[in-house]
Design goal:
The protein is 11% helix and 40% strand. It is built from three helices and 13 strands. The chain has a six-stranded antiparallel sheet, with no helix packed on it. The radius of gyration is 16 Å and the shape is globular.
Length: 184
C-alpha cells in the first residue's frame, strides 16, 4: 500500500495494490500496521471506533460536513462507483486553513483518504450508484455536527454535476463566514 501526501496539511491518500487475476481482483482496504507506522504512533489504528456506509445516486451531493472540537478523523473510500470528494481545512491554526482540495475516489483505484480532525468533508456521486465507506474515530453525536453550504462563494468549490440532489439539511446549511465566527 502506497501513501501519498495531499496539498492540505495532514491529509494523505492510501493507495492499495489490487491483485488481479481471471476472477477479478482482491485488495486490502485497511492495514493497521501501515497506518500506525505512517502516524508514528503504535496502536493509532485502534482509535477508529465506527464504520459507516452511504449509498448515493448520481448527482447526490453530501456535505460539507464536519464536527465540533475536537473534530473527528476518518478514512473515506468509495467501495462502488465514483465520487468527487472535497475537503476544506477548517482548522484555524493550520497552514492550509480555508483551502480546499478535490479527490477522485472510485472502485478502480480503491484509493482512500485520511481526513484529519477539523476538516469539512463532502462528496458528489459521479456514477449511477456510489457506495462510500467511512472509518471514524469518534462515535457520532448529532449535537456536534457542523455544515457549510456546498455552494458557498468564499470557498468557490467547483462541483461537477448541476443541479445536485441535496438533503434538506445540506440545502439550508450556513455559510463559511458563519462557521468562522463559531470556530475562531
Amino acid at each position: 500500500m502506497q501513501i501519498e501526501p495531499a496539498r492540505l496539511d495532514g491529509v494523505v491518500t492510501f493507495v492499495p495494490q489490487p491483485h488481479h487475476d481471471d476472477r477479478g481482483w482482491f485488495t486490502r482496504t485497511f492495514d493497521a500496521e501501515i497506518f500506525d507506522r505512517w502516524r508514528g504512533v503504535p496502536g493509532a489504528a485502534a482509535a477508529f471506533l465506527q464504520d459507516s456506509q452511504s449509498r448515493s445516486a448520481r448527482g447526490v451531493l453530501r456535505g460539507l460536513h464536519g464536527r465540533r472540537d475536537p473534530g473527528e478523523a476518518k478514512l473515506v473510500r468509495c467501495a462502488h462507483g465514483a465520487v468527487h470528494d472535497v475537503l476544506v481545512d477548517a482548522r484555524p491554526q493550520s497552514p492550509t486553513f480555508g483551502r480546499h482540495e478535490v479527490f477522485l475516489l472510485d472502485d478502480v483505484t480503491c484509493r482512500h483518504l485520511y481526513v484529519p480532525p477539523g476538516m469539512l468533508h463532502g462528496f458528489q456521486a459521479l456514477s449511477e450508484i456510489a457506495d462510500v465507506c467511512y472509518r471514524i474515530d469518534r462515535i457520532h453525536d448529532p449535537a456536534d455536527d457542523l455544515a457549510v453550504s456546498w455552494q458557498d462563494p468564499d470557498l468557490a468549490i467547483d462541483w461537477p454535476l448541476h443541479p445536485p440532489t441535496l438533503s434538506a439539511r445540506d440545502a439550508s446549511a450556513g455559510s463559511w463566514a458563519d462557521l468562522l465566527t463559531r470556530i475562531r
